[in-house]
């Protein structure tokens, strides 16, 4: 069985004859032109230029291990630089292998994208093995992510059973990738929660200064008439909770003996504010200056964990201030609605 590719016209206008026979594993012989193959694939060029043991002018190149149809599509791509979606759907895995072995980067890139868009639970492990063998990192990573996200389903496939019996190293790679992905998710989730906490503390510091300097609804500076306090601020939900905590702190009887958790929390907020405040002589927040003097005397500022907390809160405050104009625009209608409901 023999197939011929279209004859080519040379520069001088003469028709060139086929001078290469591509022999597939199924016995199909495809006649081709050496100068076309050599111009597209350096590997085929090397095979064509290799010395022969016989005097025949026609060279034979064997392409084993892939279906005859895949070899035919591969050779047609070398002639036309075109590969249809239908052929990619049918022979994508084989074309990726051929494009890697014979160094045809354009086809390899096309196959990589095509296979990435056709991944399924059933074929993902086969494609993963091929991506590793063919040095296709993008496809390899996508296969790994899909296997990781759908591991329970992948574990039930025949591909996984084959992997366990014949490729334990790849099985280990997949399990390590899943473990590392889960670790990254936990770390990201923990960092997000920590950042949220630092932002809440930063907002609490802002509201504390606001209450102690300007007053807000029912709580304000000690030297200001409560009736003259301002209405709800643009952070009233945070401010209101802090006002309740301040009122409790002022009236609590357990605070003296250190037996009240809410008072301890308020005490820590005062201390945190003092660590951040850069104008203690003008600050109207209670205990601000006293805490700074105490830190200077006892050198408690050398506490590494406390310094880290202060840095994180300051950082969150900076980030918050950079996004303040946008947040003001978003919160404007909500604040106006809140004020109307209180009136």
From TrEMBL:
Pathway per the UniProt entry: Protein modification; protein ubiquitination
UniProt KW keywords: Metal-binding, Ubl conjugation pathway, Zinc, Zinc-finger
Gene3D superfamilies reported for this sequence: 1.25.40.420, Potassium Channel Kv1.1, Chain A, TAZ domain
Alphabetized InterPro entries for the sequence: BT1/2/3/4/5, BTB/POZ_dom, SKP1/BTB/POZ_sf, TAZ_dom_sf, Znf_TAZ
Pfam families tied to this protein: BTB, zf-TAZ
One GO MF term: zinc ion binding
Entry's Gene Ontology cellular component terms: nucleus
A GO biological-process term: response to salicylic acid
SUPFAM superfamilies (alphabetical): POZ domain, TAZ domain
Domain of life: Eukaryota
All copies of domain BTB, residue ranges: 18-87
Protein name (database record): BTB domain-containing protein
């Amino acid at each position: 069985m023999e197939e011929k590719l279209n004859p080519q016209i040379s520069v001088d206008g003469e028709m060139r004859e086929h001078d290469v026979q591509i022999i597939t594993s199924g016995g199909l012989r495809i006649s081709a032109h050496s100068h076309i193959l050599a111009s597209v694939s350096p590997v085929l060029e090397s095979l064509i230029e290799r010395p022969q043991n016989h005097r025949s002018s026609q060279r034979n190149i064997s392409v084993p291990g892939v279906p005859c149809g895949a070899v035919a599509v591969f050779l047609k791509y070398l002639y036309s630089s075109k590969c249809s979606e239908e052929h990619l759907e049918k022979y994508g895995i084989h074309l990726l292998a051929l494009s890697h072995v014979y160094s045809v980067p354009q086809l390899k890139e096309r196959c990589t994208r095509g296979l990435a868009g056709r991944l399924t639970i059933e074929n993902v492990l086969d494609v993963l093995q091929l991506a590793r063998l063919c040095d296709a990192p993008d496809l390899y990573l996508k296969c790994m992510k899909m296997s990781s996200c759908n591991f329970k389903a992948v574990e039930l496939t025949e591909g996984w059973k084959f992997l366990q019996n014949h490729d334990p190293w790849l099985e280990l790679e997949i399990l390590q990738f899943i473990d590392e992905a889960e670790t990254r998710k936990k770390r990201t989730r923990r960092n997000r929660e920590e950042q949220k906490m630092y932002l809440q503390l930063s907002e609490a510091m802002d509201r504390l200064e606001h209450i102690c300097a300007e007053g807000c609804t029912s709580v304000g500076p000690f030297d200001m008439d409560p009736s003259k306090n301002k209405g709800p601020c643009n952070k009233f939900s945070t401010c209101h909770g802090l006002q309740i905590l301040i009122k409790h702190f002022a009236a609590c009887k357990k605070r003296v003996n250190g037996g009240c958790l809410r008072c301890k929390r308020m005490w820590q907020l005062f201390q945190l504010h003092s660590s951040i405040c850069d104008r203690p002589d003008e600050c109207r927040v209670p205990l601000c200056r006293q805490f700074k003097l105490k830190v200077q005397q006892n050198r408690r500022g050398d506490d590494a964990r406390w310094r880290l907390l202060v840095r994180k809160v300051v950082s969150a405050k900076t980030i918050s201030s950079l996004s303040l104009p946008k947040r003001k625009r978003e919160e404007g209608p909500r604040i106006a609605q809140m004020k109307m409901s209180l009136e």
